[in-house]
Design brief:
By secondary structure, the chain is α+β, with helices and mostly antiparallel strands. It is built from one helix and nine strands; from the N terminus they run H-E-E-E-E-E-E-E-E-E. The strands form two sheets. Strands 1, 2, 3, 5 and 7 form a five-stranded mixed beta sheet that branches. A four-stranded mixed beta sheet has the order 4-9-8-6, with no helix packed on it. The N and C termini lie far apart (about 65 Å).
């Protein structure tokens, strides 16, 4: 009887230490990630994070009444782009070609490819997409097809 209580006690202690260790490591990693993001935000519109041992970047494209800024963006496969509507009008970033959105080769989304916000973004709203395929990807504003941009993924 004493042996089973002893083993149960040891098991509970090991479980508590394991959970505590995971929680502390998670918090440390989270804090380090926040420090990296905060430092990068102050330097410009690129945020760097580590994922699966590789550095990945998050790029920001502003949507203005005059178009996308920057209009052309070069990045690495696995990086993400955050499209932020800075205009008072609604904008809908999506893969070219209007209206099918089928240029980006990954199926999904709401019309043609996965590279599609699937809705109009109001002022201040954003859409984030991770580009996993290398190539030159044209995109447009589905709500205003005259606005175009290009993502070059190396």
């Amino acid at each position: 009887m004493k042996k089973s209580y002893f083993l149960l006690s040891v098991g509970v202690i090991v479980l508590i230490l394991t959970i505590s260790s995971c929680t502390n490591n998670s918090k440390v990693n989270e804090d380090q990630g926040q420090q990296i993001k905060s430092a990068e935000k102050s330097e410009g519109k690129i945020e760097k994070t580590m994922m699966n041992g590789m550095e990945q970047q998050s790029h920001t494209i502003e949507i203005l009444s005059t178009g996308f800024k920057p209009n052309e963006l070069k990045m690495m496969a696995g990086d993400s782009v955050i499209f932020v509507n800075k205009d008072t009008n609604r904008h809908w970033p999506a893969s070219g070609i209007h209206p099918t959105h089928t240029v980006y080769p990954e199926p999904g989304g709401c019309i043609g490819s996965k590279f599609d916000s699937c809705k109009n973004l109001l002022q201040g709203e954003s859409f984030t997409f991770i580009f996993g395929h290398k190539g030159i990807w044209k995109y447009h504003d589905h709500s205003n097809p005259a606005l175009w941009g290009t993502i070059v993924v190396e």
